[in-house]
Amino acid sequence: MIVRFLIDEFQRGEFDYRVSHEGLDLFADAGLASLPACLLAALDGLGQDALAAEVAFKGVVSGTYPLDSIAAMPEPIAEHARNTTEAIEELLRQSAA
Question: How confident is the model at residue 13 (pLDDT cuts 50, 70, 90)?
């Protein structure tokens, strides 16, 4: 099974996440201090059926990763998610101007 990690920053430096599968929320948490912390917390709640996770930050999907990759490299995956979201947000600002 491939799950989705939906991560948001609701205040500067305060993050929340939801884990879903096929549109159904499985579990969530809020008040985490960083994007990598959300990735690791989301991993902790998964059962044995999950093999990979699609990572989305602020509604922008940055990639699908095997769970062991997320566990081994949460910081680079979080940085990629942030950079992807910032690039898309910049494109949206430019197209609105």
Answer: confident
